[in-house]
Amino acid sequence: MKRVFSGVQPTGNIHLGNYLGALKQFVELQEDHECIYCIVDLHAITMPQEPKVLREHILDVAALYLAVGVDPKKSIVFVQSDVPGHAELSWILTCNSYTGELSRMTQFKDKSKEKESAPTGLFTYPILMAADILLYDTNVVPVGNDQKQHIEICRDLAIRVNNKYKTKSFIVPEGRFLKEGARIMSLDDPSSKMSKSAENIHSRISLLDEPGKIKKSIMKATTDSEGIIKYDVKNKPGISNLLNIYCEMSEYTVKELEEKYQGCGYGDFKKDLVEVVNEGLKPIKERYEEIRYSGELPKILEDGAKRANLISAKTMNRVKNNVGLGIN
Ligand code: AQP
Predict the structure, then answer these.
(1) Residue 312 belongs to domain spanning
(2) Is residue 188 part of a domain?
(3) Ligand 1 in contact with 106 (CB < 6 A)?
(4) Residues 48 and 151 reside in one and the same domain
(5) Ligand 1 neighbourhood includes 66 CB (under 6 angstroms)
(6) Is residue 307 domain-shared with residue 170, that is, in the same domain?
(7) What is the CATH number of the domain that holds 63?
(8) What is the pLDDT of residues 248-289, one digit of tens each?
(9) Same domain, 284 and 300
(10) Could you tell which of 195, 199, 200, 241 is best to mutate to test the pocket of ligand 1, judged by most ligand atoms within 8 Å of the CB?
């Protein structure tokens, strides 16, 4: 069975972008893969976090993993900082990376925009992500399209270390991206991706948002003045983004939606979309409420960390041996 690894940062409530871009794949893959799903708290502290809030968000994300259908009997679910191998391998990879390649990462450029100096962790984030993946001899990484560059650098690092030490320290993983539509854009600015940390709460739909908030965010979503429901990312990015969301949350294809709403205004289309999103999220919210405060989460995460530590310890032994670290 091929091994899968992926993760989500506990930086806020998971939104439709995270769900449609990544989590939906997590659930599908666990049927015929050996899946390892992590809550990447070490990544979260690349930006300032309030400690108490971060702890709550870790449990929120874990509960949401389970609520969307990740099954801890089938998949390993754990918190990144409970497995020391992530930080340890990250250092070895840091010593095999170059500032030039890291400076080209668009996520770093976006997050450090207009800042005179940016946190070092933000700069080295792709290396920690590479360590996360390589630590588990991962074959497949299901992520949103926004992570393509980070998967490339992970593959480069794996090949580079294997070649440099003339040993096979790492399996070179493949990214598994969804079709273009799975990149969900911000509702108030369809030129940037939907994000947990964006200031405007109406720029995103979080999986736990109340129906009234969802209605407000969708009805306020930026469109254009043409009033024609047509998929055209270049000229009509707002309505194209809403069509993507509608399509991903329903059984309709984009083409079928264009036909269904021919001659209708944006208002009617948006009202229906509100219904579709609210209906789609209802069972997830119900399941989340059952799990989040049930007391079973810490045990699930502890078991997950034990299993993850066993796998990662083997990789670390092999890599340290290949690189010449330590005396055993
Ligand atoms: N807008 C998006 N569309 C599709 N996929 C997305 N992902 C994130 N945003 C979108 C995918 O979700 C997974 C988890 O992402 P993450 O939490 O690890 O980090 P991120 O990509 O930085 O997500 P956010 O929501 O934008 O968080 P903040 O605001 O904290 O930086 C990844 O697979 C990602 O591709």
Answers:
(1) 3-183+295-323
(2) no
(3) no
(4) yes
(5) no
(6) yes
(7) 3.40.50.620
(8) 999 999 999 999 999 999 999 999 999 999 999 999 999 999
(9) no
(10) 195
Asked if 44 and 169 sit in the same domain, the reply is: yes
HSE of 173, CA atoms in CB hemisphere, 13 A: 30
CB proximity list for 34: less than 8 A, separation 6 or greater: 1, 2, 3, 4
- Does 247 reside within a domain? yes
Instruction: Specify whether 159 is located in the same domain as 44.
Output: yes
Q: How far is CA 134 from CA 66, 68, 286, 312, in A?
A: 24, 26, 35, 9
Contact 243, 253 (CB under 8 A): no
Whether residue 250 sits in one domain with residue 159: no
Owner of token pair 């794996």: 158
Distance from residue 211's CA to the centre of ligand 1 (Å): 22
Catalytic residues: 111, 193, 196
Residues 276 and 229 in one domain: yes
Question: Residue 79 pairs with which residues in a beta bridge?
Answer: 39
Name which residue sits closest to atom 14 of ligand 1, judged by CA.
8
Q: How many domains does the chain have?
A: 2
* Same domain? 66 vs 37: yes
Q: How far is the CA of 227 from the centre of ligand 1 (A)?
A: 30
117 in a domain, yes or no? yes
- Residue 195 within a domain: no
The pTM (predicted TM-score) of the whole model is 0.92
Going by alpha carbons, the residue nearest to atom 8 of ligand 1 is 18
Tens of pLDDT, residues 117-159: 999 999 999 999 999 999 999 999 998 888 999 999 999 999 9
- Ligand 1 centre to CA of 109 (Å) is 16
pLDDT over 70 (residue 293): yes
Q: Is the CB of 184 under 6 A from ligand 1?
A: yes
Q: How far apart are CA 234 and CA 213, in angstroms?
A: 28
210 burial via Cβ count (<10 Å: 0-12, 13-18, 19+): exposed
